[in-house]
């Protein structure tokens, strides 16, 4: 298998991971509705950067450690679950504030600061999910051609997945932005935050209790 064949084959497999609805999708939609199309796109870029970091981590053996050590995986899983629940609670508080007419006008936040926040949340959302690391750890080694550098290929394969994620979440943010006039209604925004918060809390709880 050549390097190009490896990249193309992995792209087909990793695309399934990208398009599956999950916490990243919920966060992209929420940030698009709350702050605009650019914030939704930047959130997706953050998810993609998180994927590249995971790929680099796999290249240096962290993914293998998560697969081999139950203790390491458990610790990482609990930390990730706590972050998901914390983020979900924050969204629920936002939903309550919107319902009470006490929400902060996020459009008046400094553009650079709020963009970095959207980027950081997208990246942390990806990094906090150990299943991404396990997925990479299980698949990346199978797509490293004989004689190729594992470090280079691990990062390159993750970069392919990152590009797919950025394109996919960019499309999602475009779609959500097209409905933004309707979605900016108080009731709709409250429901979006409540739904996104529920998804993240549920995902965090499942992550925490699963074996």
From TrEMBL:
Subcellular location: Cell membrane
Chief localisation class: membrane
Gene that specifies this protein: rhtB2
Pfam families with a match to the protein in the record: LysE
InterPro entries: LeuE-type
Protein name, as recorded: Homoserine/homoserine lactone efflux protein
Membrane topology: Multi-pass membrane protein
Segments crossing the lipid bilayer: 6-29, 41-66, 72-92, 150-171, 192-209
Superkingdom field: Bacteria
Keywords recorded for this protein, A-Z: Cell membrane, Membrane, Transmembrane, Transmembrane helix
């Amino acid at each position: 298998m050549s390097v190009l064949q490896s990249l193309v084959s992995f792209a087909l497999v990793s695309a399934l991971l990208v398009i599956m609805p999950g916490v990243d999708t919920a966060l992209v939609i929420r940030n698009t509705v709350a702050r605009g199309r650019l914030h939704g796109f930047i959130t997706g870029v953050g998810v993609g950067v998180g994927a590249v970091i995971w790929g680099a981590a796999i290249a240096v053996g962290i993914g293998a450690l998560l697969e081999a050590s139950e203790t390491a995986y458990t610790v990482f899983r609990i930390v990730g679950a706590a972050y998901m629940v914390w983020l979900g609670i924050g969204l629920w508080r936002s939903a309550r504030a919107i319902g009470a007419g006490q929400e902060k006008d996020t459009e008046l936040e400094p553009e650079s600061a709020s963009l970095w926040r959207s980027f950081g949340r997208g990246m942390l959302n990806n990094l906090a999910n150990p299943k991404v690391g396990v997925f990479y750890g299980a698949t990346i080694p199978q797509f490293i051609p004989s004689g190729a550098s594992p470090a280079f290929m691990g990062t390159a394969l993750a970069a392919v997945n990152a590009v797919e994620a950025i394109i996919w979440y960019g499309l999602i943010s475009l779609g959500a932005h097209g409905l933004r006039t309707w979605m900016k209604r108080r009731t709709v925004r409250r429901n979006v935050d409540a739904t996104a918060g529920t998804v993240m809390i549920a995902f965090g709880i499942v992550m925490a209790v699963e074996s």
